[in-house]
Automatic annotation (TrEMBL):
It comes from Zestomonas carbonaria. Residues 57-210 form the Fatty acid hydroxylase domain. One of its GO terms (biological process) is lipid biosynthetic process. One of its GO terms (molecular function) is iron ion binding. The chain crosses the membrane at residues 20-41, 47-65, 111-133. This is Fatty acid hydroxylase domain-containing protein. The keyword Membrane applies. The keyword Nuclease does not apply.
Length: 375
């Protein structure tokens, strides 16, 4: 029986306590960790070169511990780690599966971040280790405890980055991008108990032979990404409903000539055809809709002439003035002549057309919403 991710997410969100504050959760972890780090670093005095070697050695030790705790307790049910197993395999791996790795609301951080109390418990163990080691060497004690805490905080930050939307600028940083790919592969049902347990750096996975990699599709590796945004007077539901109606694209996008398909905002599984003139070239696109969350997000992908593949994402967020509308365009060509033409000429034109389209969208959408409210 296929796992229904959206149904699980709805149940999980409904069970989150109303008082839960994701920003307070994340801020406490970072602030508490920073205070502990400041304490440990303040104990350092005239550190020798030999003592500095504690840092890389501790990072290797932490990497080994991260691997074994993740694999041994997160994916194998044991009495000692029953709560961790439930939160990780039971909740986290049911909330996120390969192909559906992004969080959708801030409150989803609860299923990404460790419980806030865990960093306190972890730090108590580190303070005990620091005190014992300080009887032998105060610098070694501080470097070991501080580096172990830094490893914990790096895990939290990297893991959160691995569940960002694909279009987020941080998600496209080179190392983050690679670790996101490894983590997504780990979230495959057939791989989650056997491969890719490291989150920040896959050293122990490599040493233990559990590192698994599949290259990204060619079009993903060579994608040109353009992101533009504007503020539109209207609710997120109204704005996205208008923008996600492809038959209205010729009203506001200079590159869209004709659209053939159903009217209204198209849901996941919808299909339509579009004639375009973009970057100085005429072409045809065949579209399929991947996702529609009213008032939040709409995603679709297309294939076109000249080996063109394209992804389009609309995202909406309520603001004091109405709606912040973000349009992310990703596209690639599968042949070198078109890639070169894109690099030299087309990219700049398409970026200008995309920027202009949002200025027009703001005006026509506001007029359409005003007429709708008046009706």
């Amino acid at each position: 029986m296929a796992h229904d991710v959206q149904a699980f997410r709805s149940r999980y969100r409904a069970a989150i306590p109303p008082r839960y504050n994701p920003w307070l959760h994340a801020s406490f972890v970072l602030a508490y960790g920073a205070l502990c780090l400041a304490f440990f670093w303040s104990r350092l005095e005239q550190v020798s070169l030999l003592e500095w070697l504690v840092v890389p050695l501790t990072l290797v030790f932490y990497n080994w511990g991260e691997y074994n705790v993740h694999k041994g307790l997160g994916h194998h049910k044991r009495r000692l780690g029953a709560l961790f197993y439930k939160r990780h395999t039971g909740d986290h791996h049911s909330f996120f599966i390969a192909g559906q790795m992004r969080y959708e609301t801030d409150r989803d951080w609860r299923v990404i971040l460790f419980p806030a109390w865990l960093i306190v418990l972890y730090s108590l163990g580190l303070f005990a280790a620091w005190w014992l080691l300080a009887q032998l060497d105060a610098n070694v004690a501080a470097l070991f405890a501080g580096t172990m805490l830094l490893g914990y905080m790096s895990y939290e930050v990297f893991h959160a980055c691995e569940h960002l939307p694909d279009s987020h600028p941080v998600a496209r940083l080179p190392w983050i991008r690679q670790m996101r790919r490894l983590h997504e592969l780990h979230h495959r049902r057939e791989l989650m108990q056997t491969h890719n347990f490291n989150i920040v750096f896959p050293l122990t996975d490599w040493l233990r032979g559990t590192l698994y990699w599949e290259p990204l599709e060619k079009e993903e590796r060579t994608m040109t990404v353009m992101r533009h945004e504007t503020e539109i007077a209207g609710s997120p539901e109204q704005v996205l409903a208008y923008a996600a109606t492809p038959t209205r694209w010729p009203e506001w996008h200079p590159s869209s000539l004709r659209v053939k398909g159903p009217g209204g905002p198209l849901p996941a599984g919808g299909h339509f055809e579009e004639d375009i003139h973009a970057g100085g070239r005429a072409g045809h696109l065949s579209w399929d809709v991947d996702e529609y969350l009213p008032g939040q997000r709409w995603r679709a992908h297309a294939n076109g002439d000249h080996g063109l593949s394209l992804k389009l994402t609309y995202e909406c967020q309520a603001t004091a003035a109405g709606t912040r509308f973000v349009r992310t365009l990703e596209y690639a060509f599968d042949n070198w002549p078109m890639r070169l033409a894109n690099l030299l000429v087309m990219r700049k034109r398409i970026d200008h057309e995309s920027e202009e389209s949002l200025r027009i969208l703001r005006d026509v959408a506001e007029r359409a919403i005003t007429r709708e409210d008046a009706a």
